Amino acid sequence: MSQAMSHQTDANAPRITIEAFGPRVRATFNGATVADSTRALVLRERGYPPRIYFPPGDVDMGLLRPTRHTTHCPHKGDAAYWTLRVGDREVENAAWSYPHPIDDVAAIAGHLSFVDAVAVDPVPA
Fold first, then answer.
1. Number of C-alpha atoms within 13 angstroms, CB side, residue 89?
2. CA distance 91 to 107
3. pLDDT tens digits for range 28-39
4. Residue 22 has pLDDT above 90, yes or no
5. How many angstroms separate the CA atoms of 12 and 75, rounded?
6. Average pLDDT over every residue of 93-111
7. Backbone region of residue 103 per phi and psi (left: phi > 0; alpha: psi in -120 to 50; beta: other values)
8. Is it the case that residue 87 has pLDDT exceeding 90?
9. Cα distance between residue 43 and residue 48, in whole Å
10. Within the chain, what is the greatest distance between any pair of CA atoms?
């Protein structure tokens, strides 16, 4: 799956929706589990692929190193980034979070999402 769920394309739908992902979901990179959660959220933003956001307690933060990179989204707020390193492989700015998102997306505060180089897939029951 690797976050390849259907895009939100209905022009009448809210710009962003957030809901519980449902089943257990895991993020892996270079053979290591980076995150594993039954409490993840899925954020769907019109025109973009859905993104899974993991609670920070379900992420192996020992594999991440904060970077100075930041971005601003008018619909979510200011994002902070982390570089992911597992073994001999590293992806700069591989994870991001909105520490203080705008009120409309407050549910994702502090949660982390990952670039497509990190596989994010449901865990079979």
1. 9
2. 26
3. 999 999 999 999
4. no
5. 17
6. 97
7. alpha
8. yes
9. 10
10. 46
N-term to C-term CA, the chain? 16
Please state whether beta strands 89-97 and 112-114 pair in parallel, antiparallel, or not at all (unpaired): antiparallel
**Which class is domain 16-122?**
mainly beta
With tokens 């707020």, the residue in question is 77
CA distance 40 to 22: 8
**Token reading at 100:** 């203080």
User: How many residues appear in the chain?
Assistant: 125
* pTM, to two decimals: 0.89
Query: Taking Cα atoms as reference points, which of 40, 63, 45 lies closest to residue 113?
Result: 40
Provide the total of helices (H) and of strands (E) in the chain, helices listed first. Answer: 0, 10
- Residue 115 is encoded by which pair of tokens? 């670039």
β-strand partners of 32: 29
Backbone angles phi, psi at 21, to 5 degrees: -70, -35
> Residue ranges per domain, the chain?
16-122
